[in-house]
Amino acid sequence: MKTQDIKFLNELQEELKTQTNDGNAAPVFWVIRQYEDQITDSDFGEKTLYAHSDGDCSEFKTLEDLRLFLDEELDSIEHYETLDEAFDIILADYNDSGYFYRYDAISVGVIQPDTLFLTKKEAQQHIENNRHHYNSTAHTYAMTAWRSRVVERLWDILGTADFSMLKEEK
């Protein structure tokens, strides 16, 4: 085994022994989780999403966003002060094509696919290096490989083996 591999294993072992587990049982591993809006029944909605879709999707966060999207300030929405009031008019009077939508949504924590890290430090570094792939709520999330005997054994080996006893390959 190469010297740099032995050094890597020793450093990984130390990090696995000393890192936080964020309250999870061993063996712990890390993923990336972020909060995303999901459409829900109006009884459960935490917020309302306003959108337009004609192949592309535009989300409106403010009344000014809606006005700018329409390229002209429609007289019928000019005097309204809230996006919700203006959207009522748009849905009633200007939505024959069915392009405008209003949804009730709830923010839900979603584990991001293709993320698995042995250490929290590596997961944090991944977020920093790949921020453009995530929204502002992205964070490390500890999970337990519950009843996975293979992972438990691997973590035990990584935590207890004396890697300095390994010989360097010539």
From TrEMBL:
It comes from the Bacteria. It comes from Listeria seeligeri. This is Uncharacterized protein. The lineage of its organism: Bacteria, Bacillati, Bacillota, Bacilli, Bacillales.
